[in-house]
Design a protein that fits this description.
The structure holds three protein chains of three kinds. By secondary structure, chain A is an alpha/beta fold. Chain A has 13 helices and eight strands. In chain B, the strands form three sheets. A six-stranded parallel β-sheet of chain B has the order 1-10-7-4-2-3, sandwiched between helices. The chains are: A alpha/beta, B alpha/beta, C alpha/beta. Chains in contact: A-B, A-C, B-C.
């Protein structure tokens, strides 16, 4: 199978290791990765902050670039949610019928990384080895947005050597919320404080999620507190081998 | 800026400012955390009992859609049915007109005081203040409303306005204002104190006001859902009853109550059924008030209806499930929202009722976590409406000359332009990698410049790695 | 009444309905398959009703049609109730000797409030939610009598207990009169959730609710 990687601008720039991990896993499972180099940003930050006129060219651009691919995979639940749910909404609100039709054709072919592996490929064990204590935070967009269910946990539990510890009150938002983290920084931190407390309670070495954006927020506080706990994208754990 | 005549409690500091103050109130944080966790558990338990909950939600959504699509027809049908049943229907386009109507009706009875069933709609139009100016005393009879009336405070929750107070705070308030020095903080004793305090009023006051949870167009029946019996008292004991209802509260058919009387109690107090529900139709011979008035209130609702994305907000049955589940509300409490309607529903309803210009920080008072949408019994896509309203806020801002000096606006526009082309995007990546060097220590930025400083004031920021993913990819392709 | 406001509001609503870019009013809800009937076992339904009413901290007992007076007598004696208000049409065979029953012949509210309690029948019950419905019909009387006294003893016939909430509204629709009856749905004694969002029994309505299911 040929898989087009939608890396997202955020991962491309700040978390390249996540992209490398996705490439290595998909190739390990016997599929070919394509990387459309014209891709930049899906427009989520602009759209969700209210800069919708500014986001529209980015949305149209994305649809144009990715429409030719059969399967599109991304290591970001929130960017996948943008394409699958908000693109339709954007097309409706801007009364762009052509875009709406193109989005309808595209949306079902865009997968978040863990749902691609578990639901589309039907694989739980990707042959990873990771002898560390790990906890998992289901991000809001993976859990309630695109509903990946327990796919990430199925993948984690199949990792050899892993010491997987479930997180208390895991379904609660970490307080990131895109520009919410700076516009409402105080509330964002109050939410993050509780999330960090639950993570530390697990005594895990690593906190894992399907979105590096939330992880950057969580990791930023873990590092500020010199907690000795680090963050990693799910794909990076799954890419690790003996 | 002129304060809107209704909805807004105080022309707030922006949400983030009010929130900052509230977040430091340790008693509030403790009370809110406890109460919201309790109610979430109760709601989840009674919702999970019903195998057809999702079907009920869809039914609720569709009935409300039907209501909105034929609102004019149903309102006229309701008016006819109530009039036939001996009631009177009044139409109020805004808060001012509604208050005028209610005041006039009370004056006609000669009564100087009224008893009130808890009603958000009358809070929204600030009926109590209007009545006070007219020399009429309004006595709140709901326990929580009584608590905040005695404490001279404002509501912080639509269902339990005194949620920010715990039992020992209520005890000391009652000890003072009811002169009960021996009162304990046992909730049953506190409730008994309220019973005694209000009984004489229920027996003697001749006029009552209420809101309405539902009104049935085909029969003209009005429905009030409550717990304490203060509602039954107000709806049964006085000679004259005046109910104020938002136009969107209407339901087409009697049978629709079979859906909503399942959705509402389980979503609001987490009970299979609330203790008391009263349904009346006009006036009933020898039973209850012999004069009944229903005031139909618009007050911005038709403006909400005109927005094809925002109109789903009018599905709301004021259950407060979204408020109880919201991680933002849980921490800030309700006062930070500066409105009669706090929490996620308030963040979308308030700006639509008063205009985004008066409440432009509210659509941003959410991390878009989606917990509200999951629990909403009528499936209001609150995150979607929040994003839609943010679009309106920005579009309005951009019509003003100040936007030319607005850092966020300029930055967003610059980024959009940069992201529009592969080469400018890649240039910006490389520029970022170079520009950060003086701020990076051991792979992190702990004190960032400009807008980044807002992030690093709270948490560290990871340094941009020297090689982007795409540069790695190209290198790999070359090597193959 | 201002006719101009009425017409202006209706006109504004009509314009609003037809505006906007997104035509997403959903059509009828006939296909929304929520449960409208409980087709289960009758005994199970009655048992569920009893259980759910009791969960509201009400007391639930059972008796036979012929044993109502005896059951009422025992219960009221146990509760120490001596003067009870009753609806004007309550059958004499429900009333035991030794307790004073006063029929509500449009009694003054202070007299009703001064009673030890009220004894009434019910229109129907809902098992799923433990709810008793009063419609002012047979053996139920005015709304005021089941509200002012601090104690309510309610007699409900087992055959009047339906399974789920939509059934109750469907059944009430078949007995609707013109002019319509007032309805009161009662689920347990009066209560409040206003203190720390926990349900506490007993505020303005009857603080004690006893129920007999007649089989």
């Amino acid at each position: 199978m040929q898989v087009a990687l939608f890396i997202t601008c955020f991962n491309d720039t700040l978390f390249p290791n996540t992209g490398k991990a996705v490439v290595s896993i998909v190739e390990r499972l016997g599929h070919q990765v394509m990387f459309p180099e014209e891709q930049t940003c899906c427009g989520q930050m602009h759209f969700n902050t209210g800069y919708q006129a500014e986001a529209m060219p980015l949305i149209r651009r994305f649809v144009e670039i990715f429409s030719q691919y059969e399967v599109i995979v991304s290591p970001s639940a929130s960017c996948v949610g943008m394409v699958r749910d908000m693109y339709r909404f954007a097309a409706e609100v801007h009364q762009d019928t052509k875009l709406a039709n193109e989005v309808a054709l595209l949306a079902d072919r865009v997968f978040e990384f863990s749902e691609f592996i578990v639901n589309r490929l039907g694989i739980q064990d990707v042959g990873a080895y990771y002898p560390h204590r790990v906890t998992y935070h289901p991000t809001c967009h993976s859990l309630r947005g695109i509903k990946v269910g327990d796919a990430p946990e199925q993948l984690l539990r199949a990792v050899r050597g892993i010491d997987y510890v479930p997180l208390t009150q895991s379904n609660e938002c970490c307080g990131f919320g895109g520009t919410f983290a700076v516009k409402n920084a105080d509330t964002s931190m109050a939410m993050l404080g509780d999330k960090i407390r639950h993570i530390l309670d697990t005594r895990a070495e690593v906190c894992v999620a399907a979105d590096n954006s939330c992880l950057m927020h969580i990791g930023g506080a873990l590092h500020r507190q010199r907690s000795g706990v680090r963050i990693a994208h799910l794909a990076e754990i799954l890419a690790a081998q003996e | 800026m002129k304060k809107p005549e209704s909805v807004i409690i105080e022309l707030a500091p922006r949400f983030e400012v009010g929130a900052k103050t509230a977040l430091q109130n340790t008693q509030l944080r403790r009370n809110m955390g406890k109460a919201t966790q309790t109610i979430r558990g109760k709601r989840a338990a009674v919702v999970n009992e019903l195998s057809d909950w999702e079907s009920l939600r869809v039914a609720g959504q569709h009935i409300k859609d039907d209501v909105l699509q034929h609102l004019d027809t149903y309102l006229v049908q309701l008016e006819d049915a109530i009039t036939r049943a001996g009631g009177h229907v009044h139409w109020a386009k805004d808060a001012h007109e509604a208050n005028e109507i209610v005041t006039r009706l009370i004056h006609a009875t000669g009564s100087k005081e009224i008893i009130k069933v808890k009603s958000l709609t009358t809070d929204e139009i600030r009926l109590n203040e209007a009545l006070e100016l007219a020399g009429i005393t309004a006595i709140e009879t709901d326990l929580a409303e009584l608590i905040i009336q005695l404490a001279h405070e404002k509501s912080s929750h639509i269902l339990v306005p005194a949620i920010h107070k715990n039992r020992s705070e209520i005890r000391s308030l009652f000890q003072k204002s009811m002169n009960l020095p021996d009162l304990t903080d046992e909730p049953t004793e506190l409730a008994a104190a309220a019973r005694q305090f209000l009984r004489e009023k229920f027996m003697s006051v001749r006029v009552a006001t209420s809101g309405a949870n539902f009104a049935i167009a085909e029969t003209g029946s009005v429905c009030v859902v409550e717990s304490e019996g203060n509602g039954r008292m107000c709806l049964t004991m006085p000679e004259v009853l005046i109910s104020v209802m938002g136009i969107e509260k209407i339901l087409p058919r009697w049978q629709d109550l079979g859906v909503f009387m399942q959705l509402l109690p389980r979503s609001s107090t987490g009970e299979r059924m609330n203790p008391y529900t009263s349904i009346w139709t006009g006036v009933h011979a020898n039973d209850g008030p012999q004069e009944f008035h229903l005031v139909l209130l618009d007050n911005g609702r038709s403006d909400v209806l005109a927005d094809s994305v925002g109109r789903q907000t009018l599905h709301c049955i004021r259950c407060s499930a979204c408020i109880n589940v919201c991680p933002v509300y849980e921490r800030t409490g309700g006062h930070a929202y500066g409105s009669v309607y706090p929490g996620p529903i308030g963040a979308i309803l308030t700006p639509q009722l008063v205009g985004t210009a008066y409440a432009d920080s509210l659509p941003y008072a959410s991390s878009l976590c989606g917990a509200c949408y999951d629990v909403c019994p009528v499936r209001i896509n609150i995150p979607e409406v929040l994003v839609h309203l943010r679009g309106k806020v920005v579009a309005e801002k951009q019509t003003k000359p100040q936007s030319w000096f607005d850092g966020e606006n300029l930055g967003m526009k610059a980024m959009a332009t940069t992201f529009a082309h592969q080469h400018t995007y890649e240039l910006a990546q490389h520029a970022g990698q170079l520009a950060q060097w003086s701020f990076v220590h051991d792979g992190y930025i702990e004190q960032g410049p400009g807008p980044l400083g807002k992030w690093t004031a709270m948490r560290d920021f990871p340094a941009i790695p020297p090689q982007s993913f795409r540069d790695w990819w190209r290198e790999r392709q070359r090597d193959e | 009444m201002s006719n101009s406001s009425r017409n202006a509001m209706l006109a504004k609503i009509r314009t609003a309905i037809n505006s906007g870019s997104r035509g997403d009013f959903h059509e009828s809800h006939t296909s929304d398959a929520y449960i409208t009937h409980d087709d289960g076992n009758v005994a199970v339904r009655i048992e569920l009703f009893a259980h759910r009413v009791a969960e509201y901290k009400a007391w639930v007992g059972r008796c036979t049609t012929g044993g109502i007076a005896q059951a009422v007598s025992e219960r009221l004696t146990m509760r120490g109730k001596k003067r009870m208000v009753i609806p004007v049409d309550l059958p004499a065979e429900w009333l035991p000797a030794g307790i004073e029953f006063i029929r509500d012949t449009q009694l003054d509210r202070t007299i009703i409030a001064g009673m030890d309690g009220v004894l009434s029948g019910a229109a129907l019950g809902i098992a799923q939610t433990g709810t008793i419905v009063l419609d002012g019909g047979k053996f139920q009387g005015r709304r005021m009598i089941s509200l002012l006294p601090d104690y309510h003893l309610c007699i409900i016939r087992a055959q009047d207990i339906v399974g789920v909430v939509p059934e109750a509204f469907a059944l009430l629709a078949t007995t609707m009169q013109s002019p319509m009856q007032p309805y009161t749905f009662i689920s347990g004694p009066s209560a409040t959730s206003d203190i720390e969002l926990n349900r506490v029994e007993g505020v303005h309505g009857p603080r004690t609710l006893d129920v007999f299911i007649v089989e």
